[in-house]
Amino acid sequence: MFSFNEFGNKLYSGKLSFPFVQKRKLWFIIAIVLVVGSILVPLFRPIQFSIEFTGGSQFVVTAPASTNQDLATEAVQSVVPDATAKVVVVDGKNVRVQTSQMSAKETNHVADALAEAYDVPVDQVSKSFIGPAWGEGVTRQSLWGLAIFLALTFLILGIYFRTWKMSAASIVGLLDVLIITVGVYALAGFQISPAAVIGFLTILAYSLYDTTVVFDKVRENTTEDGETLARTFGESVNLAVNQTLVRSINTAIIAALPVGAILFIGAFWLGAETLTDISLSIFVGIIVATYSTLFVAAPLYAFFRQNESGILAHDKKVMKARERAVQAA
Q1: How far, in Å, CA of 38 to CA of 181, rounded?
Q2: Dist. CA 211–CA 209, nearest whole Å
Q3: Phi and psi (nearest 5°) for 265?
Q4: What is the pLDDT at residue 125?
Q5: What burial class does residue 148 get, using C-beta atoms within 10 Å of its C-beta: 0-12 exposed, 13-18 middle, 19+ buried?
Q6: pTM to 2 decimals?
Q7: Region of residue 41 (phi > 0: left; psi between -120 and 50: alpha; otherwise: beta)
Q8: 192 neighbors 143 (Cβ within 8 angstroms)
Q9: 51-101, pLDDT tens digit by residue?
Q10: Fewer beta carbons under 10 A from the terminal one: N or C of the chain?
Q11: Confidence at residue 272, expressed as pLDDT on a 0 to 100 scale
């Protein structure tokens, strides 16, 4: 019978090992394919940005008897046939409708149509306009936040691990997570909203945490093994990844379950679409972050250091010691 504890013990002791470092060329090819595919997705399915980024009109129907979202879509298209409406139920009782920018006349007609569709007085339908300049400000601040986050991450990890190569491997892993998550987001056809941006930054923080834990074990193993002839540098890195594998899986499952519940039960089943943006980005990001730490960041760090003179000399001594042991046996 399979025992997860026994499985973890075998990984930690080295009796069982997955070739994260030894098969790094394969993992790098897969990672490149995923990243390139994610970058190409917008060419075939353009990324959709919410009204906060693009600007447009917003209507809120307060406490209608029915929250049927199809009524709102039909009402908007009865005034502007080619309009695309994003309809969500807010607080379980109000209907929010977002559309592209409309003229003042069209805005008033849509408000009247919504009031008629939901059988409420016109004064229960509020209308507002969000200009594209506000969206440009949000975009600019998001990009600045991302740039500052990555710069501080590189600096802090470099100081903590005392090597820029760990920082570089971590940053590549973070970018891998961000690009693939945005690609999946675009492929799913969801709009990128401020809530989604918050989700992207959240999964970067999660990915950084996961990578730091693994790299801490890598540093411990490579420091200890540097004084012995037990393992090569690559083998020490691979052992560290295997030793933290169970922890990474457990953390990912524990983090993904509640977010998945929000996404699939709250958003898709119960219709609380206001939760979709942030929950989808975090759910996908948790899975991608776990994959990226194991198959991209850690093997990439081993690749960055494999040609250092000290490591080459150490690995050579390890192989010679093994040859002597085989000959003696």
Answers
A1: 8
A2: 6
A3: -90, -50
A4: 86
A5: exposed
A6: 0.78
A7: alpha
A8: no
A9: 777 778 888 888 888 888 888 888 888 888 887 778 877 767 788 888 877
A10: N
A11: 57
